[in-house]
Amino acid sequence: MIYLNMSLNSAMDSLRLLTLLQSLLVLQVHFSKQLEDNQIPPSLCTGHPGIPGSPGGHGSPGQPGRDGRDGRDAAPGEKGEKGDRGDSGEAGVRGLTGDKGNPGEKGERGQPGECAVAPKSAFSAKLSQGLSLPLSVGDAVRFDTILLNEQADYNAETGRFTCKVPGVYYFAVHATVYRASLQFDLMKNGHTVASYFQFYGNWPKPASLSGGSLLHLVPGDQVWVQMALSEYNGFYSSTKTDSTFSGFLVYSDWKNSAVFA
Questions:
Q1: Cα–Cα dist 157/194, whole Å
Q2: What is the reported pTM?
Q3: Please, which pLDDT band fits residue 160 given cuts at 50, 70 and 90?
């Protein structure tokens, strides 16, 4: 009986041992697979941390990332200082002619202008009855009775015409010759322009002598009639016959106006 119990206990111990071995074998197979897969349970890794490993090599560049979203607008910055003026650029190509604009409004009427008046100069004078004629050569004959002298260019006291308007003038002398022969000169600024002579032969009636000339004058020039010889002074004037000296402007030299040309 005792022997049977001992055998039974031995058998039970053997069965337990076998069960334990099987369990250990199953665990070994399970842990062997985990070791092969580097899957060590944390419960088995209870050692101290290892020494840090060496830095790894640089990896390959990654692919470009996507564009980020636009940021919010910042507050405006302060105004900067004015820069230096740049050099002038080259002239551009001339543009095309634009369209004709609309007519503008009519302007206000201007002030009345001055009327252009053509220059004038004319005179005529005669000897008065009983006038004493000069006897010396070089004296001007004073035609003392004014017939026309609107511009006052002729001086009856001196017998001289003074030019004010430049241009061409015509002068004429009509003389009645009586009691003596007559010779006179038409003078310009002291120079003889033309000479005239009429012989008197004790005729019962007076004779006549006439002459004229065109002269170009500038302002300040003077023209007069002068005795050529003292003994030839037969100018005569009466109620029925006269001796006259006349002159007038033919055309002027003022070319600054069409009226005066």
A1: 23
A2: 0.55
A3: very high
